[in-house]
Design a protein that fits this description.
7-stranded parallel beta sheet; alpha/beta; 5-stranded mixed beta sheet
């Protein structure tokens, strides 16, 4: 049984992770952690997630939560994830990171912390999205450069980063297919008189509103024809299930930084 610590246990993804742990063989909830002074501290983690109480109370004491655990499930914020990557490195833990909104500098920092721990990091943990990435890369490689590429995404009103981590992953897949640098060819915003579209660019369109969990599509627009590849999340359980499976997959792997493509053998 893998002993798992859930970060942000009082939040929506934290509770989804706790429910996923309860449903997946080989996984067990060891501890539940929240930020200092959070109103959920002291509450039964499973009960808060809508399950039978287990006596695992949410704590804000990091050492108390991590002493004896085997894995960390983390959908928080980049700097929090970096702090816990240091803990995972020092303790030799599995650390599954579903956090989004990374800068290039933060990505470099997290990569440097995979020497002793086993980090699985992805902008999206779902099987369907990772399959979509493979299809986007193949389509971008196969279609001529006069097909314009647009990545569209919509999320709930509370999401704080844009474009989403998944949208950036899809843009990167398209760039990889075309063997171009995404940073030099992406268009993140349009406003006013923008002029004609730059040939070969990869555009991003971001929408926010309501309670949308996550809609993503990639449009390949050519002359007189259009191809759309998409994925629409209907429940956060798809991300939590992927994270727990990634944690179990990583427990017997060598230290290093892995992706969901590694987990799924894609």
């Amino acid at each position: 049984m893998q002993k798992i610590t859930v970060l942000g246990a009082g939040g929506r993804m934290g509770q989804a992770n706790i429910r996923a742990i309860a449903q997946i063989d080989g996984a067990g909830l060891f501890s539940a952690l929240e930020r200092e002074g959070a109103e959920t501290v002291g509450k039964d983690a499973r009960a808060l997630a809508g399950l039978e109480p287990s006596g695992v109370l949410i704590t804000d004491n990091v050492d108390e939560a991590l002493d004896g655990t085997g894995a960390i499930i983390d959908f928080t914020a980049p700097q929090v994830s970096i702090d816990f990557a240091k803990q995972a490195h020092d303790r030799g833990l599995v650390h599954v990171i579903g956090t989004t909104g990374w800068t290039a500098e933060e990505d470099a920092e997290i990569s440097a912390l995979s020497g002793k721990g086993r980090l699985v990091k992805a902008g999206n943990m779902s099987l369907g999205v990772n399959l979509l990435m493979g299809l986007v890369q193949k389509a971008a490689a196969a279609l001529p450069m006069d097909f314009d590429i647009e990545v569209l995404e919509m999320h709930h009103r509370m999401k704080v980063d844009a474009p989403s981590g998944t949208a950036l992953m899809l843009g990167q897949a398209a760039a990889d297919g075309r063997e171009i640098d995404l940073a030099d060819n992406s268009v993140r915003a349009r406003d006013g008189i923008t002029g004609a579209r730059e040939p070969g660019s990869i555009g991003f369109s971001t929408m926010r509103g309501g309670t949308v969990i996550g809609d993503h599509s990639v449009v390949f627009a050519g002359s007189n024809e259009r191809i759309e590849l998409g994925h629409y999340a209907q429940d956060r359980s798809i991300f939590a299930n992927g994270a727990i499976h990634a944690s179990l997959w990583a427990q017997d792997k060598e230290p290093g930084l892995y992706s969901m493509a590694d987990v799924l053998g894609l």
